[in-house]
Amino acid sequence: QQQVKQSPQSLIVQKGGISIINCAYENTAFDYFPWYQQFPGKGPALLIAIRPDVSEKKEGRFTISFNKSAKQFSLHIMDSQPGDSATYFCAASMGNQFYFGTGTSLTVIP
Amino acid sequence: DTAVSQTPKYLVTQMGNDKSIKCEQNLGHDTMYWYKQDSKKFLKIMFSYNNKELIINETVPNRFSPKSPDKAHLNLHINSLELGDSAVYFCASSQNRGAYEQYFGPGTRLTVT
Predict the structure, then answer these.
(1) Which of B41, B90, B100 sits opposite A87 (nearest CB)?
(2) Between vectors from CA A40 to CA B21 and to CA A18, what angle results, nearest 5°?
(3) pLDDT at B1
(4) Cβ <8 Å between B105 and A32
(5) B106 and A98: CB-CB below 8 Å?
(6) Which of A48, B2, B55, B93 has the most other CB atoms within 10 Å of its CB?
(7) CA atoms of A83 and A90, how far apart (whole Å)
(8) pLDDT one-digit tens code per residue, A72-81
(9) Which residues contact A60 (CB under 8 A, 6 or more apart)?
């Protein structure tokens, strides 16, 4: 079954707007929650990650919000730029097990 | 200075053939992975090796056989290719089996006709 559920499947945002992608998980044993960014024809690349002992992590325009009790986490992209147009994957991991969400195709319109 | 490289980039072959995809990482990592990304971009782990030892073997047809000659290389051999094997295959590596940051290769697009 799908260990990590991601929404929306696609997202269109105006330049300068905020992009928000949500993920939910069931297994409370997960202890690492990364977000990967994938451009067409390229492999995924780690964007930002969080562990469940913090509720928020910010790196530049990218912020992860983590709600342990709700078993949800989200990626916020502030001041979205056309160069942010890519597919974003959330993931959850514990030990050797690594599960990706289904991906969100983000398009930022100039 | 490619960190994780894969060859070939594209592979077009007919049903029933046997093919291999090669992966090399120059990061000095101990753990390597193979992922399959289908047409809907869903990423699923197939195998993981740590220091040449198989540690993850997800439910994958036994037509798929990984081989790790050393910890810098993890190859994927596929026998009797089927139409449903068409996908993009990504190799990845991480520092060790407990390290969560994975570095992905550029992918190999396999098309089975």
Answers:
(1) B41
(2) 140
(3) 64
(4) no
(5) no
(6) B93
(7) 19
(8) 999 999 999 9
(9) none
